[in-house]
Write a structure and sequence with these properties.
With about 475 residues, this protein is α/β, with parallel strands linked by helices. It contains 15 helices and 21 strands. α1 runs parallel beside α9, α3 packs antiparallel against α4 and α3 packs across α7. A hairpin with a 5-residue loop joins β5 and β6. The chain is globular and about 65 Å long. Strands 1, 2, 3, 4, 5, 6 and 16 form a seven-stranded mixed sheet that branches. It folds into three domains: about 170 residues, FAD/NAD(P)-binding domain; about 110 residues, FAD/NAD(P)-binding domain (3-Layer(bba) Sandwich); about 110 residues, 2-Layer Sandwich (Enolase-like, domain 1), CATH 3.30.390.30. The protein starts with a strand and ends with a helix. It comes from Microbacterium aoyamense. Keywords: FAD, Flavoprotein, NAD. Belongs to the class-I pyridine nucleotide-disulfide oxidoreductase family. It holds the Pfam family Pyr_redox_2. This is NAD(P)/FAD-dependent oxidoreductase.
Length: about 475
């Protein structure tokens, strides 16, 4: 066993871990990152990037078919083989060579193997060949291990070898039929993608689609899925069994579904079961509770960044946390000023007030900040501004059959936007303007002077202001 010493030891080389290490190194520290799989993590190879690659072809084809002049040029269906090859190109054939090259350029050391906390500021790594190395941190250890798909304890489900998001996004042979358990983001995105491949898809959603967002988001996405041939069932699942012809799913109403494969998309669980939490007095398999600087509560050296702290299970939000954490680790190590007041450099204040997210279905869903329900639950006096996006002039030029909706949530007392939800084709690009307005607490009266271009769908901002009044 050998021992090496660094200022910072990072467990997990996904985009979150990479950013923690990079910011700390930019702040003058030395850093090493430990990875047991591929540098670049879940997002690069099994989540964000491959899933969007699988979705894009179908969305582009549907968009072309909704415009006179373009639809006449569409003479065939989606080329599934070409779509899968494009996905393979985007994930670099599951090679992390380019990511490792970036680590080297950023002066971040890499140790491959399984990392476990083995004491205060100490991490022991078991390499693939069975050898071990102990990494000692002078200042901090950051756990950035992310999450795994949660597989519920439905009788027979585990034995049926279900797909999770990993198998779905890395698929090589598209199944003829697929049952998806869960109506959240992964469930509806993969239903959209596989329906575009010609797969017969059934979504089983106990309580509906996209239930953490505004109700109209799930309604419009559900309408689009049904139009694409997807069957949506409500209620629970009592049992799952695999036989020679695929899987049999028994629903709570006694009916059965049969499909070639089953995808579980019912949530995430922290990847902390085997990272040595017990060695530092924490419960293995638990989410890690942190303050706004990502410091695990009760410690002065242990940080948890990204999905593993359960604040906002989104890659971009994890990278935001990582920038704050890397900077504050460097500041604390060098005796610098810690700017931990709300909206300061070393805190992730947006986790509480302005988390943006996009669901890449067709239509897309883009949301940031409060929904009507969450604002009411928080006791905020609000006014809700709704608008049908098909009424905006830009919608008529965008598509022949535009369907979309937008909702603004305004804090009446302060006169500022605190939430926005958009549903419509390619609507994701409209989201950042709302995020800026919320983070900047731009007064509604000032927004009158932010003139939207004509004719674009962003003219919805003017329609919201007109509904608000002057």
């Amino acid at each position: 066993m050998s021992t090496r010493e660094y200022d910072l030891v990072v467990i997990g080389a996904g985009p979150v871990g990479e950013n923690v290490a990079d910011r700390a190194v930019q702040g003058g520290l030395t850093a090493v990152i430990v990875e047991s799989e591929l540098v670049g993590g879940e997002c690069s190879y099994w989540a964000c990037m491959p899933s969007k690659a699988l979705l894009r072809g179908g969305a582009a084809l549907r968009a072309a078919r909704d415009i006179a002049g373009a639809r006449e040029a569409v003479t065939g269906g989606l080329d599934v083989a070409a779509t899968l090859q494009r996905r393979d190109d985007i994930v670099h054939e599951w090679s992390d060579e380019s990511q490792v090259a970036w680590l080297n350029k950023a002066h971040i050391d890499l140790v491959r193997g399984h990392a476990r906390l083995s004491g205060e500021r100490e991490v022991t790594v078991e390499a693939p060949d069975g050898s071990t190395v102990t990494l000692v941190a002078r200042h901090a250890v950051a756990v950035c291990t992310g999450t795994d798909a949660a597989v519920p304890g439905i009788p027979g489900l585990a034995e049926a070898s279900p797909w999770t998001s990993r198998e779905a996004t890395s698929v090589e042979v598209v199944p003829t039929s697929l049952v998806t358990l869960g109506g959240g983001v992964v469930g509806v995105e993969m239903a959209t993608a596989f329906a575009s491949f010609g797969t017969e898809v059934t979504v089983v959603a106990r309580s509906g689609l996209l239930t953490t967002l505004e109700p109209f988001a799930g309604e419009l996405v559900g309408d689009a899925l049904r139009e694409a041939g997807v069957t949506i069932r409500s209620g629970g699942v009592d049992a799952v069994a695999r036989d020679g012809g695929g899987v049999v799913v028994t629903l709570s109403d006694g009916s059965e579904l049969r499909a070639a494969e089953i995808l579980v998309a019912t949530g995430r669980t922290p990847r902390t079961e085997d990272v040595g939490l017990d060695a530092v007095g924490l419960e293995p398999g638990s989410w890690l509770d942190v303050d706004d600087t990502m410091l695990v509560k009760g410690f002065d050296w242990l940080y948890a960044v990204g999905d593993v702290n359960r604040r906002a299970l989104l890659t971009h939000q994890g990278k935001y946390q990582a920038r704050a954490a890397g900077d504050v680790i460097a500041a604390r190590a060098r005796g610098g000023e810690v700017m931990d007041a709300p909206w300061g450099r070393h805190v992730a204040t947006a986790d509480h007030a302005a988390v943006p997210q996009v669901v890449f279905t067709d239509p897309e869903v883009a949301a940031v900040g409060h929904t009507e329900a969450s604002a009411q639950a928080a006791g905020i006096g609000i006014r809700v501004l709704d608008y049908d996006l098909s009424w905006v002039a830009g919608a008529s030029t965008y598509a022949d059959h535009y369907t979309g909706r937008a909702r603004a949530i305004v804090d009446e007392e302060r006169g500022v936007l605190i939430g926005a939800t958009f549903v419509g084709p390619d609507i994701a690009e409209l989201l950042h303007s709302a995020t800026i307005a919320i983070v900047g607490e731009v007064p509604i009266e000032r927004l009158w002077h932010a003139v939207p271009s004509y004719p674009t769908v962003s003219e919805v901002w003017l329609r919201w202001l007109e509904a608000w009044g002057r």
